[in-house]
Amino acid sequence: MGVELLLMETLEELDNCEFEKFKWFLSMELMNGCKPIPKSYLEGKPRTETVSKMVQMYGDDSAVNFTLEILKKMNMNNTAQKLKNTHTGGTTAASSTSSSASAPAVAPTTISAQQGGVVIAPTVSGSTAGSWNITINKA
User: Fold this and answer.
1) CA–CA dist 23, 55 (Å, integer)
2) What 8-state DSSP symbol labels residue 44?
3) Is residue 71 scored above 60 in pLDDT?
4) What is the crossing angle of helices 47-58 and 16-26, to 10°?
């Protein structure tokens, strides 16, 4: 399932009051590296435009991670767990007799230049959520 559809289905589970609170959280800086979406953009916008803006600003994985953080802050832990399980390919406890499935291991992200080159504007693949340690070594 595509991330936009997954986020859309998640936001459709929120009633109008919860959705407004969700948008309020989007306008705050909750995660390092995730710039808040301006309140003026979110005001009066439907779920479809909100999801599109989230994916545009944060990318697929970070949009999901940001949504998970907001849902947890809203004490919507069941909805957050359902989103997490669906996104990672797991199953929910209600639809499985065993909930011991673990998330797949993610290889660390690396950036390197070859043959003495310099990395100017790297493209990062993998997860961009969380904190980063950057070490610059002079060859």
Assistant:
1) 14
2) T
3) yes
4) 20
Query: Residue 4, class by beta-carbon neighbours within 10 Å (0-12 exposed, 13-18 middle, 19+ buried)?
Result: middle
Tell how far CA 36 is from the center of its chain: 13
pTM assigned to the model: 0.62
**Would you say 25 and 74 are in contact if contact means Cβ atoms under 8 Å apart?**
yes
Tell me the C-alpha distance between 94 and 71, whole Å.
19
Which is nearest to 72 in space by CA: 30, 38, 116? Answer: 30
Q: What is the pLDDT of residue 134?
A: 63
Contacts 24+ apart (CB under 8 A), 79-87: 79/10, 79/13, 79/14, 82/10, 83/6, 83/7, 83/10, 86/1, 86/6, 87/3, 87/6
Triad 71, 84, 134: Cα angle to 5°: 90
The arithmetic mean of pLDDT across residues 64-86, rounded, is: 93
Let me know: does 36 contact 29? Beta carbons within 8 Å: yes
